[in-house]
Task: structure prediction
Amino acid sequence: MELVTVKIDDKISDVFNDLLRKDAVVAIVDKKGKFLGVPDKKYLRILKQDKHAKVERILRTVTPVLENERNNLEKLFSSFIEYPRAVFIVNKSKKLQDFIPKEEIISHILEYIPKHIRVDDVMQPGVYTIEESKTLQEAKAMMRAFQTDTLIVVDKKQKPLGIISYDDLIIAAAMFDVKGRKDLVEKKVPPESKIKISDLIYEPVITVKRSQLLNKVIKKMKDEIDVGVAMDLKRPVGMFSIKDVAKVALRFVKVEDPSIEIMGLAEEDWIFVDDIKAELKRLKEKIEKIKRVDKIVLFLKQSKGAFRGKLSIIGEEIIHIEEDGYDLHGLIKQLVKTATLKIKKLKPNKKRRK
Result:
Protein backbone atom coordinates (compact mmCIF):
# COMPACT_ATOMS: atom_id res chain seq x y z
CA MET A 1 0.00 0.00 0.00
CA GLU A 2 1.39 3.37 -1.05
CA LEU A 3 0.98 6.73 0.72
CA VAL A 4 -0.17 9.55 -1.59
CA THR A 5 -0.42 13.15 -0.40
CA VAL A 6 -2.50 15.89 -1.98
CA LYS A 7 -2.51 19.54 -0.97
CA ILE A 8 -5.53 21.26 0.49
CA ASP A 9 -5.53 23.92 -2.25
CA ASP A 10 -5.14 21.47 -5.17
CA LYS A 11 -8.00 21.32 -7.66
CA ILE A 12 -9.98 18.10 -7.26
CA SER A 13 -9.92 17.63 -11.03
CA ASP A 14 -6.09 17.65 -11.02
CA VAL A 15 -5.79 14.89 -8.41
CA PHE A 16 -8.99 12.99 -9.19
CA ASN A 17 -7.29 9.75 -10.24
CA ASP A 18 -5.21 9.73 -7.03
CA LEU A 19 -8.34 10.20 -4.91
CA LEU A 20 -9.96 7.07 -6.35
CA ARG A 21 -6.90 4.80 -6.21
CA LYS A 22 -7.57 1.57 -4.32
CA ASP A 23 -3.89 0.65 -4.02
CA ALA A 24 -3.03 3.80 -2.08
CA VAL A 25 -3.83 5.65 1.12
CA VAL A 26 -4.52 9.33 0.41
CA ALA A 27 -3.70 12.05 2.96
CA ILE A 28 -4.49 15.76 2.68
CA VAL A 29 -1.78 18.18 3.85
CA ASP A 30 -1.20 21.92 3.81
CA LYS A 31 1.69 23.70 2.07
CA LYS A 32 4.06 22.93 4.96
CA GLY A 33 3.18 19.23 5.04
CA LYS A 34 0.95 19.44 8.11
CA PHE A 35 -1.56 16.61 8.19
CA LEU A 36 -5.18 17.81 7.88
CA GLY A 37 -7.21 14.69 7.10
CA VAL A 38 -8.41 12.45 4.28
CA PRO A 39 -10.70 12.92 1.24
CA ASP A 40 -14.38 12.14 1.79
CA LYS A 41 -15.40 10.64 -1.54
CA LYS A 42 -19.10 11.18 -1.03
CA TYR A 43 -18.52 14.90 -1.55
CA LEU A 44 -16.96 14.37 -4.97
CA ARG A 45 -20.40 15.13 -6.38
CA ILE A 46 -19.52 18.79 -5.78
CA LEU A 47 -17.73 18.58 -9.15
CA LYS A 48 -21.07 18.44 -10.90
CA GLN A 49 -21.73 22.01 -9.75
CA ASP A 50 -18.15 23.31 -9.58
CA LYS A 51 -15.45 21.81 -11.83
CA HIS A 52 -12.84 24.08 -10.22
CA ALA A 53 -13.56 22.98 -6.66
CA LYS A 54 -10.52 22.49 -4.45
CA VAL A 55 -9.62 19.58 -2.20
CA GLU A 56 -10.63 21.58 0.89
CA ARG A 57 -14.26 21.01 -0.18
CA ILE A 58 -13.95 17.24 0.39
CA LEU A 59 -11.75 17.29 3.52
CA ARG A 60 -12.65 14.89 6.31
CA THR A 61 -10.72 15.30 9.56
CA VAL A 62 -9.10 12.23 11.10
CA THR A 63 -7.17 12.03 14.37
CA PRO A 64 -3.50 11.15 13.71
CA VAL A 65 -1.11 9.49 16.19
CA LEU A 66 2.12 11.08 17.40
CA GLU A 67 5.42 9.37 16.58
CA ASN A 68 6.18 8.65 20.24
CA GLU A 69 2.72 7.06 20.68
CA ARG A 70 2.75 4.66 17.74
CA ASN A 71 2.96 1.73 20.17
CA ASN A 72 -0.09 2.92 22.12
CA LEU A 73 -2.71 0.44 20.93
CA GLU A 74 -5.61 2.36 22.43
CA LYS A 75 -4.73 5.42 20.31
CA LEU A 76 -4.01 3.31 17.22
CA PHE A 77 -7.35 1.50 17.41
CA SER A 78 -9.27 4.74 18.12
CA SER A 79 -7.73 6.40 15.04
CA PHE A 80 -8.35 3.29 12.91
CA ILE A 81 -12.04 3.31 13.88
CA GLU A 82 -12.27 6.85 12.46
CA TYR A 83 -10.61 5.81 9.20
CA PRO A 84 -10.37 2.00 8.76
CA ARG A 85 -7.80 2.04 5.97
CA ALA A 86 -4.71 3.23 7.83
CA VAL A 87 -3.39 5.19 10.81
CA PHE A 88 -1.42 8.37 10.08
CA ILE A 89 1.72 9.16 12.10
CA VAL A 90 2.73 12.80 12.70
CA ASN A 91 5.43 14.64 14.64
CA LYS A 92 4.83 17.27 17.35
CA SER A 93 4.32 19.90 14.64
CA LYS A 94 1.60 17.67 13.10
CA LYS A 95 3.69 17.14 9.96
CA LEU A 96 2.93 13.83 8.28
CA GLN A 97 5.79 11.36 8.84
CA ASP A 98 4.46 7.90 8.07
CA PHE A 99 1.39 5.68 8.08
CA ILE A 100 0.54 2.26 9.49
CA PRO A 101 -1.34 0.16 6.91
CA LYS A 102 -4.56 -1.67 7.63
CA GLU A 103 -2.83 -5.09 7.54
CA GLU A 104 -0.55 -4.17 10.45
CA ILE A 105 -3.43 -2.78 12.54
CA ILE A 106 -5.46 -5.94 11.97
CA SER A 107 -2.56 -8.08 13.20
CA HIS A 108 -2.72 -6.11 16.49
CA ILE A 109 -6.52 -6.37 16.61
CA LEU A 110 -6.28 -10.16 16.37
CA GLU A 111 -4.32 -10.22 19.63
CA TYR A 112 -7.23 -8.64 21.49
CA ILE A 113 -10.22 -10.53 20.10
CA PRO A 114 -11.17 -13.26 22.63
CA LYS A 115 -11.43 -16.75 21.15
CA HIS A 116 -15.07 -17.16 22.20
CA ILE A 117 -16.47 -14.14 20.28
CA ARG A 118 -18.46 -15.03 17.16
CA VAL A 119 -19.71 -13.10 14.14
CA ASP A 120 -23.17 -13.14 15.73
CA ASP A 121 -21.82 -11.00 18.61
CA VAL A 122 -20.73 -8.06 16.41
CA MET A 123 -22.99 -8.15 13.35
CA GLN A 124 -25.75 -5.63 12.75
CA PRO A 125 -28.96 -7.61 12.10
CA GLY A 126 -31.58 -6.62 9.59
CA VAL A 127 -30.18 -6.29 6.07
CA TYR A 128 -31.72 -5.58 2.67
CA THR A 129 -30.64 -7.01 -0.67
CA ILE A 130 -30.91 -5.84 -4.25
CA GLU A 131 -30.20 -7.81 -7.42
CA GLU A 132 -27.39 -6.48 -9.58
CA SER A 133 -29.78 -6.31 -12.54
CA LYS A 134 -31.77 -3.52 -10.84
CA THR A 135 -31.22 0.13 -11.68
CA LEU A 136 -29.81 3.08 -9.76
CA GLN A 137 -33.30 4.54 -9.55
CA GLU A 138 -34.70 1.33 -8.04
CA ALA A 139 -31.85 1.19 -5.50
CA LYS A 140 -32.63 4.73 -4.32
CA ALA A 141 -36.31 3.88 -4.03
CA MET A 142 -35.48 0.81 -1.91
CA MET A 143 -33.26 2.83 0.41
CA ARG A 144 -36.03 5.39 0.94
CA ALA A 145 -38.66 2.69 1.49
CA PHE A 146 -36.61 0.73 4.04
CA GLN A 147 -34.92 3.82 5.53
CA THR A 148 -31.43 2.41 5.06
CA ASP A 149 -28.30 3.80 3.41
CA THR A 150 -26.74 0.41 2.57
CA LEU A 151 -27.87 -2.49 0.38
CA ILE A 152 -26.27 -5.89 -0.22
CA VAL A 153 -25.86 -6.58 -3.95
CA VAL A 154 -26.79 -10.17 -4.84
CA ASP A 155 -26.92 -12.28 -8.00
CA LYS A 156 -29.92 -14.24 -9.27
CA LYS A 157 -29.18 -17.03 -6.77
CA GLN A 158 -29.17 -14.46 -3.94
CA LYS A 159 -25.42 -14.87 -3.40
CA PRO A 160 -23.91 -11.64 -1.95
CA LEU A 161 -21.51 -9.91 -4.35
CA GLY A 162 -20.84 -6.66 -2.52
CA ILE A 163 -22.50 -3.65 -0.91
CA ILE A 164 -23.52 -0.23 -2.16
CA SER A 165 -24.23 2.84 -0.08
CA TYR A 166 -26.34 5.90 -0.80
CA ASP A 167 -23.12 7.87 -1.27
CA ASP A 168 -22.05 5.40 -3.99
CA LEU A 169 -25.29 6.09 -5.85
CA ILE A 170 -24.85 9.85 -5.60
CA ILE A 171 -21.27 9.68 -6.90
CA ALA A 172 -22.25 7.32 -9.72
CA ALA A 173 -25.10 9.54 -10.85
CA ALA A 174 -22.81 12.57 -10.86
CA MET A 175 -19.77 11.11 -12.60
CA PHE A 176 -20.78 7.93 -14.38
CA ASP A 177 -19.06 7.38 -17.71
CA VAL A 178 -18.69 3.69 -18.63
CA LYS A 179 -18.63 0.46 -16.61
CA GLY A 180 -15.99 0.56 -13.91
CA ARG A 181 -15.05 4.17 -14.62
CA LYS A 182 -16.01 7.37 -12.85
CA ASP A 183 -14.11 10.44 -13.99
CA LEU A 184 -14.42 14.02 -15.11
CA VAL A 185 -14.75 13.42 -18.84
CA GLU A 186 -17.39 15.78 -20.17
CA LYS A 187 -19.93 13.34 -21.51
CA LYS A 188 -23.66 13.08 -21.16
CA VAL A 189 -24.66 11.22 -18.02
CA PRO A 190 -27.23 8.48 -18.76
CA PRO A 191 -30.48 8.70 -16.78
CA GLU A 192 -30.62 6.87 -13.46
CA SER A 193 -33.34 4.60 -14.83
CA LYS A 194 -30.79 3.12 -17.27
CA ILE A 195 -27.72 2.78 -15.01
CA LYS A 196 -27.71 -0.73 -13.54
CA ILE A 197 -26.20 -1.77 -10.23
CA SER A 198 -23.95 -4.17 -12.16
CA ASP A 199 -22.44 -1.11 -13.89
CA LEU A 200 -21.17 0.31 -10.59
CA ILE A 201 -17.99 -0.42 -8.69
CA TYR A 202 -19.40 -1.68 -5.42
CA GLU A 203 -17.50 -2.65 -2.32
CA PRO A 204 -16.61 -6.37 -2.16
CA VAL A 205 -17.62 -8.47 0.86
CA ILE A 206 -16.85 -11.83 2.40
CA THR A 207 -19.66 -14.18 3.37
CA VAL A 208 -19.39 -16.13 6.61
CA LYS A 209 -21.65 -18.16 8.87
CA ARG A 210 -23.11 -16.14 11.73
CA SER A 211 -21.80 -18.81 14.16
CA GLN A 212 -18.20 -18.58 12.90
CA LEU A 213 -15.47 -17.46 15.32
CA LEU A 214 -14.58 -13.82 14.72
CA ASN A 215 -10.79 -14.16 14.98
CA LYS A 216 -10.80 -16.63 12.06
CA VAL A 217 -12.90 -14.29 9.93
CA ILE A 218 -10.70 -11.24 10.54
CA LYS A 219 -7.73 -12.91 8.84
CA LYS A 220 -9.72 -12.80 5.58
CA MET A 221 -10.26 -9.02 5.85
CA LYS A 222 -6.62 -7.93 5.54
CA ASP A 223 -6.80 -6.88 1.89
CA GLU A 224 -9.44 -4.72 0.22
CA ILE A 225 -12.40 -6.28 2.01
CA ASP A 226 -13.76 -4.23 4.90
CA VAL A 227 -17.26 -5.69 5.20
CA GLY A 228 -18.58 -9.14 6.02
CA VAL A 229 -22.06 -10.54 5.44
CA ALA A 230 -23.32 -13.02 8.03
CA MET A 231 -25.23 -15.94 6.55
CA ASP A 232 -27.77 -18.32 8.03
CA LEU A 233 -29.19 -21.15 5.89
CA LYS A 234 -27.62 -19.49 2.80
CA ARG A 235 -29.50 -16.28 3.53
CA PRO A 236 -27.90 -12.94 4.55
CA VAL A 237 -29.02 -12.03 8.08
CA GLY A 238 -26.54 -9.35 9.14
CA MET A 239 -23.48 -7.26 8.32
CA PHE A 240 -20.32 -6.25 10.15
CA SER A 241 -17.32 -4.12 9.25
CA ILE A 242 -13.67 -4.04 10.24
CA LYS A 243 -14.62 -0.92 12.20
CA ASP A 244 -17.04 -2.98 14.33
CA VAL A 245 -14.25 -5.50 14.98
CA ALA A 246 -11.81 -2.72 15.98
CA LYS A 247 -14.36 -1.43 18.51
CA VAL A 248 -14.42 -4.85 20.17
CA ALA A 249 -10.60 -4.94 20.32
CA LEU A 250 -10.51 -1.40 21.75
CA ARG A 251 -12.82 -2.46 24.56
CA PHE A 252 -10.39 -5.19 25.59
CA VAL A 253 -7.30 -2.98 25.20
CA LYS A 254 -8.79 -0.45 27.63
CA VAL A 255 -8.97 -3.03 30.40
CA GLU A 256 -5.67 -4.69 29.48
CA ASP A 257 -3.00 -4.36 32.18
CA PRO A 258 0.12 -6.59 32.15
CA SER A 259 0.25 -6.46 35.95
CA ILE A 260 -3.18 -8.15 36.20
CA GLU A 261 -3.30 -11.86 35.48
CA ILE A 262 -6.30 -14.22 35.45
CA MET A 263 -5.76 -17.97 35.54
CA GLY A 264 -8.10 -20.94 35.43
CA LEU A 265 -11.05 -19.17 33.80
CA ALA A 266 -13.17 -21.70 31.88
CA GLU A 267 -13.62 -21.11 28.14
CA GLU A 268 -17.38 -20.57 28.50
CA ASP A 269 -16.72 -17.83 31.09
CA TRP A 270 -14.28 -15.82 28.95
CA ILE A 271 -17.15 -13.58 27.94
CA PHE A 272 -16.81 -12.03 31.43
CA VAL A 273 -13.05 -11.50 31.30
CA ASP A 274 -13.18 -7.76 30.53
CA ASP A 275 -15.59 -7.16 33.43
CA ILE A 276 -13.33 -9.11 35.82
CA LYS A 277 -10.23 -7.22 34.66
CA ALA A 278 -12.05 -3.92 35.09
CA GLU A 279 -12.93 -4.85 38.70
CA LEU A 280 -9.32 -5.81 39.45
CA LYS A 281 -8.03 -2.66 37.78
CA ARG A 282 -10.23 -0.50 40.03
CA LEU A 283 -8.97 -2.45 43.04
CA LYS A 284 -5.36 -1.87 41.95
CA GLU A 285 -6.00 1.87 41.61
CA LYS A 286 -7.36 1.99 45.17
CA ILE A 287 -4.33 0.19 46.59
CA GLU A 288 -1.85 2.34 44.64
CA LYS A 289 -3.10 5.42 46.46
CA ILE A 290 -1.34 4.11 49.58
CA LYS A 291 0.97 1.26 48.49
CA ARG A 292 2.90 0.16 45.41
CA VAL A 293 1.36 -2.75 43.50
CA ASP A 294 3.54 -4.89 41.21
CA LYS A 295 1.10 -7.63 40.32
CA ILE A 296 -2.43 -8.91 40.96
CA VAL A 297 -3.06 -12.58 40.24
CA LEU A 298 -6.52 -14.19 40.29
CA PHE A 299 -6.67 -17.98 40.19
CA LEU A 300 -10.07 -19.60 39.63
CA LYS A 301 -11.08 -23.21 40.00
CA GLN A 302 -14.49 -24.70 39.26
CA SER A 303 -15.71 -28.01 40.69
CA LYS A 304 -19.23 -29.47 40.88
CA GLY A 305 -20.87 -26.15 40.02
CA ALA A 306 -18.95 -24.16 42.66
CA PHE A 307 -16.08 -21.68 42.26
CA ARG A 308 -13.01 -21.18 44.39
CA GLY A 309 -11.05 -17.98 43.93
CA LYS A 310 -7.57 -17.09 45.16
CA LEU A 311 -6.52 -13.44 44.87
CA SER A 312 -2.88 -12.50 45.38
CA ILE A 313 -1.77 -8.86 45.58
CA ILE A 314 2.00 -8.48 45.35
CA GLY A 315 3.91 -5.26 45.97
CA GLU A 316 5.01 -3.31 49.05
CA GLU A 317 2.56 -5.54 50.90
CA ILE A 318 1.64 -9.12 50.02
CA ILE A 319 -2.02 -10.05 50.46
CA HIS A 320 -3.58 -13.45 49.82
CA ILE A 321 -7.36 -13.93 49.87
CA GLU A 322 -9.46 -17.06 49.27
CA GLU A 323 -13.23 -17.21 48.80
CA ASP A 324 -15.80 -19.77 47.61
CA GLY A 325 -19.04 -19.16 45.75
CA TYR A 326 -21.59 -20.58 43.34
CA ASP A 327 -21.77 -17.43 41.18
CA LEU A 328 -18.69 -16.12 39.36
CA HIS A 329 -19.73 -12.45 39.55
CA GLY A 330 -20.62 -12.78 43.23
CA LEU A 331 -17.29 -14.46 43.96
CA ILE A 332 -15.28 -11.68 42.26
CA LYS A 333 -17.20 -9.00 44.16
CA GLN A 334 -16.60 -10.82 47.45
CA LEU A 335 -12.86 -11.14 46.75
CA VAL A 336 -12.63 -7.42 45.91
CA LYS A 337 -14.68 -6.50 49.00
CA THR A 338 -12.43 -8.58 51.29
CA ALA A 339 -9.32 -7.07 49.67
CA THR A 340 -10.72 -3.55 50.12
CA LEU A 341 -11.30 -4.19 53.85
CA LYS A 342 -7.71 -5.40 54.22
CA ILE A 343 -6.43 -2.34 52.35
CA LYS A 344 -8.10 -0.02 54.85
CA LYS A 345 -6.06 -1.63 57.62
CA LEU A 346 -2.76 -0.96 55.86
CA LYS A 347 -0.61 1.95 56.99
CA PRO A 348 -0.41 4.53 54.20
CA ASN A 349 2.93 5.26 52.58
CA LYS A 350 3.57 8.89 53.61
CA LYS A 351 5.49 9.74 50.42
CA ARG A 352 2.58 8.47 48.28
CA ARG A 353 0.05 10.52 50.24
CA LYS A 354 1.96 13.67 49.41
Q: What stands out?
A: The domain at 119-249 is CATH 3.10.580.10 (CBS-domain).
